[in-house]
Amino acid sequence: MPSIGNRCHELRVLDKGCNWRVIYRIESDAIVILDVFPKKSQGTPKTVIEQSKARLAQYLRVIEQEADMEMTKRVKLEAAGWAVSTPKEFLNLSEEDAAFLEVKVALAAALRGLRMERALSQVEAAQRLHSSQSRVAKMEAADRSVSVDLLLRSLLRLGGTRERMVAALTPVAFPVE
Questions:
Q1: Would you tell me which of 11, 54, 103, 143 could form a disulfide with 22, CB atoms 3.0–4.6 Å apart?
Q2: Which residues of 129-163 are buried (b: 16+ CB within 10 A; e: fewer)?
Q3: Which residues pair with 23 in a beta bridge?
Q4: Domains and CATH numbers, the chain
Q5: pLDDT tens digits for 87-104?
């Protein structure tokens, strides 16, 4: 959601007749949840956008002097009222589901990176993929409606290589038995 900030996205969650939205930002070492709200209208309410912008600004101020997710960053965030956890803890995921989510997010980031590297807009990428701009946006946000298969095929269609996909997945921590 560029209206909030770079690397900000909106996730749809359907739960017992209620459409929830999670506004989040993807960092190299964290997923920052900016807001969770029930979706009741076509557009995102202006108050939610403004609150998310304010929370993002607060988050960025807190971590401004920290390069990576060290204990000092965690302590500062918690002192500022933030709850800090991993996506696995936050979503109560099994090891396998957490690993799958990491793979999907890594592939989505690789797709966006490749598109940007090729200097393609989402519309231009969509034309090459025989898809729509909104679908490309969903792919880049790792939307639940997007399959890993679609991400892999899209990477290949935009000129990605197997080596690039392996590199994208290399930092992903898989469960060890």
A1: 11
A2: bebeeebbbbbbbbbeebeeebbbebbeebebeee
A3: 10, 35
A4: 8-84 (no CATH), 89-169 (1.10.260.40)
A5: 778 778 888 888 888 889
